[in-house]
Amino acid sequence: MLHLPDIAKQNPLHKKIIINERLPSFVKAPCQVSVSYSAAAKDDFYTINLEVEAVLDIICQRCMGEFILPYKNSTVIAVCRTDERAEQLLEHYECIVAANWTVSLDDLIIDELHLYVSQFHPEVGDCDSGINDFLTAKIETY
Question: Most CB contacts within 10 A, which of 15, 37, 89, 125?
Answer without folding.
Answer: 37
